[in-house]
Amino acid sequence: MSGLAAVLFDMDGTLVDTEVLWWEATEEVAARLGHRLTDADAPEVVGRAVEDTAAHLVRATGAPDPDGVAAALTTAFQKRVDEGAPMRPGADRLLAELERAGLPFALVSASPRSVVDSVVGGALAHVPFAFTLSADDTERTKPHPDPYRTAAERLGVPVAACVAVEDSPDGAASADAAGCAVLVVPPPPGAPGPDRIFADSLEGVSLEGLRRHVRDRKAPEADGQPDTRVNIPGSYAPPGLCTITFIRVAALIRDTRQTRAPTRSSS
């Protein structure tokens, strides 16, 4: 297996903390359509493309115009992103390490171009990505392999020599299907794949760890032996099939609501 040639980063929830912003935007649009968003909606909201979440809301509410719902979601999300999206822990340090090493890295997002440009012009303005890809730049977006295959082609490197850094089931599935090695932060996004490693946050991830992952990974047909997994500090491979959970997102939403709740003065 060849060495690490490039790192391909997801954006929302991976480099910038936009998970709650997306949930709030969806919650706002759902309410307009007469639907109260709950944890049961999370699999169709968290880490999903705009069109997927719009289709879910259409099914849940009977709204006649999926394109209109998608546009409303994008507008509501864009408004929140424009107000600021904080960096995820460890993201700045890892990006700086890659830059110092001269290793190419790019942004591969399932968000619309308008949202990507807003974040890249704001929270990520200091990051020298080789380029950015949005949902508008490929015929199909995540979970299809098109975004990661396109990114590798644009960089002129083998897709198998790329590590994709993801946080969602659709994103990890996209990178898997393309042939990338995959680092999932935070875990778990679903069942462990043969080329996936997991870390609690980017704070424990290093360039050397990513290089080891690409160097030591095995092709599925290599020799029939168990796949080699790389140990990144603070990382683990969940045993067996993992149920997709959204406990972290739910906790963030609860914290946000508590923060915004008006303080009652004692009489």
The percent range for helix content is: 25-40%
Question: What's the SSE pattern?
Answer: EHHHHEHEHEHEEHH
Rg is: 19 Å
The number of distinct structural domains comes to 2
- CATH topology category name of the largest domain: Rossmann fold
The CATH superfamily of the largest domain is HAD superfamily/HAD-like
Shape: globular
Assembly state (oligomeric)? single chain
Query: Quick one: CATH class of the largest domain?
Result: Alpha Beta
Q: Which CATH architecture of the largest domain is right?
A: 3-Layer(aba) Sandwich
- With strands numbered from the N-terminus, the spatial order across the biggest sheet is 3-2-1-4-5-6
* Alpha-carbon distance between the two ends: 70 Å
**Main beta-sheet strand count, sense and barrel state:** 6 strands, parallel
Derived structural class = alpha/beta
Contiguous uncertain segments of 5+ residues: 220-250, 263-267
Overall pLDDT confidence: 82
Report the β-strand fraction as a percent range: 5-15%
Question: How many β strands by DSSP?
Answer: 6
Describe the structure in your own words:
The protein has 267 residues and is α/β, with parallel strands linked by helices. The protein has 2 domains: 6-17 and 86-216, Rossmann fold (3-Layer(aba) Sandwich); 19-82. The protein is built from 9 helices and 6 strands. Helix 5 (113-120) links the parallel strand 2 (105-108) and strand 3 (132-133). The longest helix has 17 residues, at 66-82. The N and C termini lie far apart (70 Å). The relative contact order is 0.16. Residues 220-250 and 263-267 have low confidence and may be disordered.
